[in-house]
Design a protein that fits this description.
Number of strands: 6
Oligomer: single chain
Distance between the termini: 52 Å
Strand content: 5-15%
């Protein structure tokens, strides 16, 4: 039987934002950070009633605060309300849910953090743990936990310069719903990171739908390739400071002096990685998709904007909507 934690003497507030773990400070060679001690986020004195959750085929018993469960999960809210038998017995049975995933959920429920250790004995991330937890959060309709799983996945991938294994892709496509943001995140991790070593050292099979989705993404790179950058108009000219468009290799010219205020600049430059595109290439959405992607550093999509992998039906929006400069230009601007 697993009882709820005792109330702390003071409440520690865990700041929640997509930038809270400072991903920009990680380099591709950074080591896995030490797991932080868990601190209770919620003042338990506000919750009185205890619910019993029986998990797995052995019906392992969890005693958790009912109001806390119903505050994060519409599934539990429905179970404990109305004329359902669970509302009378205050007991919910989840025989098919994996026990380890529910244990992680119970910890998250009281701490709202996933910063405990999720690595194996070699210090490499156990991505399958995050994926199974995401799948559980989906079944229990817990949006905030799904968002936190995406954040944790991106953090570990960046800190250890790694990506999920072939066997992880089976969880991704067999246990996680179509259209889930986690699928988009894992696809981007594979598209933007060098995976030569992974392909050479893992003999297990990839999920065929994952391979299909990845091929489609790599064959249609334009929107992702350009939208991850922070584009600003650039006046390079043919003289000092001139640069070629990274796609067509034509020298980017400064806008003509006779251009009107409504005319588009002739070239754009990313303020972070300094990639240059001419206006026609940027307007068509072309941007390249190859092994040069990892060198862009801060322009990896999960570092630039984690909110694109979040859902905000009931949780607070992490950022303002992205604005785009000018008609036909697919870009992000400051």
């Amino acid at each position: 039987m697993i009882d709820p934690p005792s109330a702390p003497s003071s409440t520690t507030t865990v700041a929640r934002s997509s930038a809270r773990r400072a991903r920009s400070t990680h380099s591709s060679n950074s080591t896995q950070p030490e797991p932080r001690s868990l601190a209770l986020r919620t003042s338990l004195k506000n919750y009185k009633d205890i619910a019993t959750i029986l998990v797995g085929p052995s019906h392992t018993q969890f005693l958790l605060h009912k109001d806390l469960l119903t505050s994060v999960s519409p599934f539990f809210s429905a179970c404990f309300s109305g004329s359902f038998s669970e509302s009378t017995s205050q007991t919910v049975t989840l025989p098919e849910e994996p026990l380890p995933s529910f244990e992680y959920f119970a910890q998250w429920l009281y701490t709202r953090t996933l910063e405990h250790d999720m690595t194996n004995n070699k210090g490499m991330p156990t991505y399958f743990v995050i994926l199974e937890l995401y799948a559980l959060a989906d079944r229990l309709h817990i949006e905030a936990l799904r968002n936190d799983c995406c954040d944790r996945m991106a953090e570990l991938a960046e800190a250890t310069n790694s990506v999920p294994t072939p066997s992880d892709t089976w969880i991704l496509h067999e246990r996680i719903r179509d259209g889930a943001p986690m699928r988009k995140l894992v696809g981007d991790l594979f598209a933007f990171k060098r995976t030569d070593n992974l392909l050479a050292t893992h003999d297990d099979e990839w999920h065929p739908r994952f391979l299909r989705a990845l091929v489609v993404q790599l064959k249609r790179p334009a929107p992702v390739a350009v939208s991850r950058h922070l584009w600003t108009p650039w006046k390079g000219g043919r003289g000092e400071g001139a640069a070629a468009c990274d796609v067509c290799k034509a020298v980017c010219k400064a806008p003509p002096s006779s251009a009107t205020s409504t005319a588009q600049p002739s070239s754009f430059k990313c303020t972070d990685c300094e990639r240059v595109l001419c206006a026609p290439c940027l307007g068509r959405g072309v941007g390249g998709c190859g092994w040069d992607w990892p060198k862009d550093g801060a322009c990896k999509p999960w570092i630039r904007d984690m909110c694109q992998y979040h859902e905000h039906g009931v949780t607070e929006q992490c950022r303002e909507p992205v604005t785009r400069p000018g008609e036909g230009i697919v870009a992000r601007v400051s």
